Structures are given as C-alpha cells and as structure tokens.
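re: ur question from earlier - yeah i can do the single chain one, its not a big deal. heres the input i used so u can compare w yours
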Amino acid sequence: MGGFFPRAAVGTAMIAAVSAACAACAPAEPDRTPLAIGIDATSPEQIVLGEIYNEIFTGLGFAVSVTDVSDREAQDPVELLRTEELDLTIACTGTLLEERDPRAARALDREEPDLSVATYDAVVGTFPSDVRTVDPSPAQGCGGEGKLPRNIIPLVVKGKLDRWAVYRLNFITRVMATEDIAEMAQRVRDGEPVANATRDWLLEYAGITYDGDVIAPSEPKTAPGV
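and the output i got, formated as tokens:
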C-alpha cells in the first residue's frame, strides 16, 4: 500500500488536534530541504493546488520549487515521481485508477456504501513501494465528472517528509472543499494571480498570513462535510 499510515488512524478530529498541539513545534531554524512539486500548468486547478502545497511546505521550512510538467511524455503522476526530479505530484483518485488499472476501475461496484473509500483503496493499491499519499481530500477535482469519485490526493516520494510534514500535508488536504478549489481555480482562469486567489483560503484554513508567516489558529478550520 502507498499510504503513509492506516486511514482509520488519521481521522479529521485527530489531525485537527495534532495541528493545534504542534502548530508551534515546527523547527525554529528549518534546514531548507529542497522539495519539487510538479503540476500541469495548463490546469487552473493544478495551479491552485500547487500554490497551496507550495505555501504549506514553505511554511515548514522547505525550499519549494513548482515545475510545469504538462509537456512531459509521461503524464501519470506516479510515473512522473519516478522519472522526473520531483517530490510531489497531484492527482484525483478515480481518474488515476482508470489510468493505472482500468479493470479494477470497472470492477468497482457503483452501489458501494462508500465508493470514495473503495476508489481510494484501489488506487493506492496500484502504487509502487516508493510512492506514498495521505487521506483523500473531500474535494472532488479533475473536472469532477466520471463514474468514480475524483477525490484530490497528493503523491509524495517515500522518505521525503518527516512525521510533522506528513500530518500537515494530511490536514491541509482534508480541509479542502470542492467549491473552494473550483472558485479559486476560476479566479486563476480569469487572470487573477494565484497568490491572490489562494490568499484568503490559506489564511483561514492554514493559518498562513498575507506576509507568508505561519500562525497557529486557535481552532483549526474544517471543511463542510469533513
């Protein structure tokens, strides 16, 4: 399996508690470990998600770079991690499963009581041992159209993140909402700079100020339905 840890052990309530308790425990003098994020820069949604993760990891002390991979021959987010000098890519569960294992995608029972969980479990099962992810976002991405759910997930190279960075990545992914991501993506599509489009959301949900400082919200926000 490609998850960092069992899904049942990292419910939203626990992640919120960890975020509140550890907001001040990020290193005072970060080592500026490089972290390369790959996005499809032709997609406003990916631009928004790339900016969110960029700000999160910059706040944790990583030296973050965001690279446009839209011109790469391989577009599978998993394979991009293995063939390019990248540490993080972004995908949607149903879309990625249909690309990596069409048979498994077709076999999923559309009457599943929780098709989102079943789709997530199935796609994580296709990951090689050196690729990891966190809990799926409640937010639907990649157009949100299709027979399977398209929950947003970040994919990360195994061993790149320490435990605190994993918790932070999981938390921010879990507080995303479909409407928020779509609204920010539309603003980027309309020509607004991505930093402006994501600024208020990052302040509200990530505690990142207008100046890029990280603060500790008294009560970490959760998205509707989480």
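The first helix runs from residue 12 to 22. not sure if urs matches, ping me
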